[in-house]
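REQUEST FORM: STRUCTURE PREDICTION
Request ID: SP-0412
Submitted by: Lab K.M.
Chain count: 1
Length (residues): 94
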Amino acid sequence: MSEINISYPLDCHIDHSKETLLSLLQALEDKYAIQHEFISEHECNLSGSGVSGLLTLADDGIEIHARLGFFMIPFKTVIETEIKNKLDESFGGS
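STATUS: Completed
RESULT:
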């Protein structure tokens, strides 16, 4: 198994962050079939064929931890880069 671990600092209000994250989560769903489900106000399960993980939203940042199955390993760098680019685009490259 391979893992994606992203810590992204934020300097905006958590409610704005959550709204903005929804577009990132939708893009992951559309492109990689990675589903999302909020399990609490600030935690979101990520799941899909060959992917499982957790996104945590805090006042000072976003944490994304995901495990990739064998068939998703070749996409690790692409997925990580796309997530980071989308976060930079959405939050101004904090």
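NOTES: Residues 87 and 93 are 7 Å apart (CA to CA).
Reviewed by: T.R.
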